[in-house]
Every structure is written in structure tokens, then in C-alpha cells.
Amino acid sequence: MLQEFDTIVLATDLPDQKLQTGDIGTIVLVHSQQAGYEVEFTTLLGETVAVISLSPTQLRPVRPYELPHVRTMSSLAA
């Protein structure tokens, strides 16, 4: 069961938000009965990239032995 402040992994590309499968975010709000989640994605320096609503199928919990990976964004502007 996912909760507020859990770290999650994006399970689908979201090109309009410049997010890719595997990007890491933090749940900031759980909707009623876990119907969806508000998730914040930030740069490693803490700059917010996006805060978006995701359905349970669009994210997953972090699994044991997963290693974060860094990628560069061209910009934060949409």
C-alpha cells in the first residue's frame, strides 16, 4: 500500500511533462481509497519538474536492489 512521502517509480512515459519510465518521484497526496496519487518529480538539486496526478497503473513502488540513474533534461520549461 503506497502512502504519502513514499518514493515511487514512473511506469510509463509522460512526454508532455518531460518524464520517462523509470523517473523517480515522491507521493505528496493519496486520493480517496488509493484511486490515484499526486506525485512530485524533482531534479537532484530539489527543483520541481512536475507535480501531477497519476493512476495506480502509471507508477510502482521501488523494488529491492534497484539503482537510481541520472539523465539530463534539456530544460524545465514546458
What does this protein look like?
With 78 residues, the chain is an all-beta fold. The chain has one domain (7-61): SH3 type barrels, CATH 2.30.30. The protein is 0% helix and 35% strand. The protein has a five-stranded antiparallel sheet with strand order 4-3-2-1-5, with no helix packed on it. It is globular. The model has no long low-confidence stretch (mean pLDDT 94).
Structure in a nutshell:
The protein has 78 residues and is mainly β.
Describe the secondary structure blueprint for this structure.
Elements: E1 7-10, E2 24-30, E3 37-42, E4 48-54, E5 59-61
Antiparallel strand pairs: 1-2, 1-5, 2-3, 3-4
CATH topology: SH3 type barrels
Calculate the terminal CA-CA distance, rounded to whole Å: 32 Å
Order of helices and strands: EEEEE
Radius of gyration: 12 Å
CATH class: Mainly Beta
Q: Can you count the beta strands?
A: 5
Determine the fraction of residues in helical runs and give it as a percent range.
Answer: under 10%
Structural class computed from helices and strand pairing: mainly beta
Indicate the low-confidence ranges by residue numbers.
none
The average pLDDT value, as a whole number, equals: 94
For the sheet with most strands, the description reads:
5 strands, antiparallel
Shape: globular
CATH-level-2 architecture? Roll
H/I helix tally: 0
The share of residues in extended strands comes to 25-35%
Number of domains: 1
Main sheet: strand order: 4-3-2-1-5
